[in-house]
Structure formats: structure tokens, C-alpha cells
Specification:
By secondary structure, this protein is α+β, with helices and mostly antiparallel strands. About 15% of the residues lie in helices and about 35% in strands. The chain contains three helices and ten strands. It has helices at about 50-65, 130-140, 145-155, and strands at about 5-15, 20-25, 40, 45, 75-80, 85-95, 105-110, 120, 125-130, 170. The strands form two sheets. Strands 1, 2, 3, 4, 5, 6, 9 and 10 form an eight-stranded mixed sheet that branches. A two-stranded antiparallel sheet has the order 7-8. The chain starts with a strand and ends in a 9-residue tail after the last strand.
Length: about 180
């Protein structure tokens, strides 16, 4: 079996004594009516021979249409094997950006199934800053362990276990990358 590697970036910030992370709701018709377990950190497949950190930067830019902040330390969050067998490696970066500036890329898929029609869908249709407890409920299951590692890096602040969104509201994206990669 060929192992697929995916790399990405967890952008985080501190607001009102809580850690918040930037997450994106996966676009396309398969995710349209889902909220819980339908969000992801910006990430995607590494190209053959591509260094994982370079892939993480590239995927952040492709998925969000904006470069990650240049002035922070990339902190390793390790890797996790996903339910589909793919291995995801993530880094944490302290920074801030306005979700309204995000212009995600798109992906093409046949829709409706077996129709022969290809349609363009946004990779990410919404982005939001959410606290760690909210992220724990929204992220796909395979990415939740990265929240625990981030909490250690940020001294565990911001993860009270409550469902408080801290006023963060999802912002619409405009175009995006293949969901779940």
C-alpha cells in the first residue's frame, strides 16, 4: 500500500485569554449540509519529493488564497494517521488574519453522481476563528489530536471544554482545493 502524506498549518491566536484556531468548512455538495466533523485545518497532499513544510505552506496558500504570516515560528505538532490511511503532518504558527481576505481555490468533480457533468466547487466554503473546545466538535476526527498538542504549546489555555465560539462567525470563502486532502 502506498502511503499518502498530507501537510498543513494550524494558525492560532490568543483572544480574551483563550486560544483560537483558524479552520475551514470543506466545500462541495458532500459537506454542504454538515457542520460537526466537516471542518479542517488548511492542508493537502504533498507532491512527490516535496519537503513537508514546503507542502504545508503551499497548501495554506492554495486553500485560502493568502500566504501565512511570515513573522512567526513554525512549531511542530507531529503527525497522525487518518482513518483513510493518509498521514497528516501539521505545524502551529501564531498569527492573525481576517477571514474576509480569504479567497479559497476550487476543485472539479462530477455532480450529480453518474451524470457526466463536471462542476466547480470551492475547496473551503467558510472559514472561522474558533476556540479549542468548539474546534474539537467541528474538526474531522483525525485532526482532533492536534488540538491537544497545540494546547500543550499554548500552556493549555483556551480549552475549557465549553461550547463557546467567542463571537467567531464563519466567513464565506469564494473558491477552493479538494476536500479532505
Amino acid at each position: 500500500m502506498v502511503v499518502r502524506w498530507s501537510a498543513g498549518l494550524v494558525l492560532y491566536r490568543e483572544r480574551n485569554g483563550r486560544t483560537e484556531v483558524l479552520i475551514g468548512h470543506m466545500g462541495g455538495p458532500l459537506w454542504a449540509n454538515k457542520d460537526a466533523r466537516a471542518w479542517s485545518f488548511p492542508k493537502g497532499l504533498a507532491e512527490e519529493g516535496e519537503e513537508l513544510r514546503a507542502a504545508a505552506r503551499r497548501e495554506f496558500e492554495e486553500e485560502l488564497g493568502i500566504a501565512p504570516p511570515d513573522d512567526g515560528e513554525w512549531r511542530e505538532l507531529g503527525e497522525e494517521r487518518q482513518p483513510n490511511g493518509k498521514i497528516v503532518t501539521l505545524w502551529a504558527l501564531s498569527g492573525d488574519l481576517d477571514p474576509e481576505l480569504i479567497e479559497p481555490g476550487g476543485f472539479v468533480m462530477e455532480w450529480p453522481p453518474h451524470s457526466g457533468r463536471e462542476q466547480l466547487f470551492p475547496e473551503i466554503d467558510r472559514v472561522a476563528w474558533v476556540d479549542l473546545a468548539t474546534a474539537r466538535e467541528l474538526l474531522v476526527v483525525g485532526q482532533v489530536p492536534f488540538l491537544d498538542r497545540l494546547a500543550v504549546l499554548t500552556d493549555g489555555d483556551g480549552d475549557s471544554g465549553s461550547d463557546h465560539r467567542g463571537g467567531a462567525q464563519p466567513a464565506s470563502g469564494r473558491d477552493g482545493a479538494a476536500p479532505g486532502e
